[in-house]
Amino acid sequence: MINSLTARIFAIFWLTLALVLMLVLMVPKLDSRQLTPLLDSEQRQGIMLQQHVEAELAGDPANDLMWWRRLFRSIDKWAPPGQRLILVTSEGRVIGAQRNEMQVIRNFIGQSDNSDHPQKKKYGRVELVGPFPVRDGEDNYQLYQIRPAGNSQSDFISLMFDRPLLLLIVTMLISIPLLLWLAWSLAKPARKLKHAADEVARGNLRQHPELEAGPQEFLATGVSFNQMVSALERMVNAQQRLLSDISHELRTPLTRLQLATALMRRKHGEGHELARIETEAQRLDSMINDLLVLSRNQHKNELTREYVTASDLWSDVLDDAKFEAEQMGKNLQITAPPENWMLVCNPAALDSALENVVRNALRYSNQQISVAFTADQLGVTITVDDDGPGVSAEDREQIFRPFYRTDEARDRASGGSGLGLAIVEKAVEQHHGWVKAEDSPLGGLRLVMWLPLQHRRQATGVESK
User: Fold this and answer.
1) Of 70, 116, 127, 415, whose CB has the highest number of CB atoms within 10 Å?
2) Which 8-state DSSP code applies to residue 61?
3) C-beta separation of 360 from 420 below 8 A
4) DSSP states of 236-294
5) Nearest-5° angle of CA 160, CA 162, CA 163?
């Protein structure tokens, strides 16, 4: 077994080339129309016909004016049933041949003209045999026999043997399945590597032992790939541990700050400064929570998924949003409510995604918010509009980045940690959907989310982890 990919490709190339050349050179020798020696029985039959014709000519007096008729009568009389005999004079005249046979006969005469070694050759559906010497006094003739060819090869095979280029093309076509199989087997390790790389791109950081097999080049690549995946997994785990540790360390002083604020309120009563300190502490705590959620979602390989209808999934979110809009004195309209469209999803992730988008619209709208759900055979589209200040065209791609804030939202009094839309984008991508920002007909920002619909027969392989 050749373990080097370079040596394997080199060997396959020369093996294929040698096979093609061998076929091109050897196959014509299998042509049934080649000149072949006579069998003993055929030799005896030819000699017997020769003797009969000579005897017939000896008993028929010669006539200078009608000499060719005398020759024709003798060969016609002794021709076996279903066969014909022809005589060729020393000057090259052919007696007994039909006009349409002359080219074939001339070709055979040119190849087989030695009466000491008569031969035979097939021409399509006929076979020529000879020559046998015939003596007629002082004249010498050559006797040939034309008979039906037994087991004649097809016209296509004959044409292929007559045209070497066509034979080469047929040989190459026959070798194509072998070459395709060889190419497939050589590319198989590359396909495995691509599949493993796609899984890493989707965040599934697991090793692939099957990559560490095959040719040496791919084996070394597979070992390096698995080492890279292990290093990435260690880095991700270290990052998550770091974030968890930072969260723990930050929450300790936050708890103390909130406790100190409560003690000061008890001692000195309510105050503007204490309210501001408490608000900022709560925002910092919320920001830490959002950052941890985003970090977990970015490196989570698989989400727990289950069957749920769109109406059941988002009904509570919409009810809470309506209540919150009423408390804020704003108008939230659901122009097209969700229906019983079947989704295979992580309910908590998509529930949080819609909640973030709607709360974002409530926060920045002036008065009007609109939510609409539509569906087709492929997926569900969710559109959330508001009449707020909107987002400039150059900022629409950036608002999904963590901590990115537009000019209109830089004032911390507007609320939010700058992580909500980043969490939304990651959750939607994990469900193979997309989210984008556009201008809203209400004058503000429109956020559009698309999620694929999946039928039960398409999702039978979904695992709950």
Assistant:
1) 127
2) -
3) yes
4) HHHHHHHHHHHHHHHHHHHHHHHHHHHHHHHHH---HHHHHHHHHHHHHHHHHHHHHHH
5) 65
Nearest Cα to Cα of residue 30 among 22, 41, 38: 22
Task: Report the distance separating Cα 442 and Cα 445, nearest Å.
Answer: 8
pLDDT of 8 over the 80 cut = no
Retrieve residue 252's tokens: 């300790």
Return d(Cα 406, Cα 408) in angstroms, integer.
5
φ and ψ at residue 463, rounded to 5 degrees: -105, 145
Please list, in sequence order, all residues whose beta carbon lies within 8 angstroms of the beta carbon of residue 371, skipping any fewer than 6 positions away.
318, 321, 332, 333, 334, 335, 358, 382, 383, 384, 385
- Tokens, residue 186: 């050589």
- For the chain, give the mean pLDDT: 79
Segment 292-323, tens digit of pLDDT: 665 665 555 455 678 889 999 999 999 999 99
Residue 5: name the closest of 182, 147, 172, 157 by CA. 182
Pick the CATH number of 303-452 from 1.10.10.60, 3.30.450.20, 3.30.565.10, 3.40.50.360: 3.30.565.10
Q: Which two tokens stand for residue 235?
A: 């880095």
Q: Cβ distance 147 to 80 under 8 Å?
A: yes
Determine the angle formed by the axes of helices 67-78 and 40-59, rounding to 10 degrees.
Answer: 140
Domain definitions of the chain by residue range:
1-31+155-202, 37-152, 230-295, 303-452
What residue type is 255 in one-letter code? Answer: T
Q: What is the pLDDT of residues 344-388, one digit of tens each?
A: 888 888 888 898 899 889 988 999 999 999 999 889 999 999 998
Q: What are phi and psi of 354, to 5 degrees?
A: -65, -40
Assign a CATH topology to domain 230-295. Helix Hairpins (1.10.287)
Q: Regarding beta strands 342-345 and 379-386, do their DSSP bridges make them parallel or antiparallel, or are they unpaired?
A: unpaired
DSSP 3-state assignment of 18?
helix
**pLDDT at 264 > cutoff 90:** no
Q: Contact at 8 Å (CB) between 250 and 37?
A: no
Tokens of 367: 């008065």
Please state at what angle helix 420-430 crosses helix 347-364, rounded to 10 degrees.
Answer: 150
User: Looking at 248, 268, 432, 455, which residue is catalytic?
Assistant: 248
Q: Do 202 and 212 meet the contact criterion of CB atoms below 8 Å apart?
A: no
Q: Can you tell me the distance from the alpha carbon of 325 to that of 369, in angstroms, rounded to the nearest whole number?
A: 9
> 156 in helix, strand or coil?
helix
CATH fold group of domain 37-152: Beta-Lactamase (3.30.450)
**Integer Cα distance of 255 and 264 in angstroms:** 14
Each residue's pLDDT tens digit, 199-251: 887 767 788 888 877 777 777 888 888 888 888 878 877 777 776 677 767 76
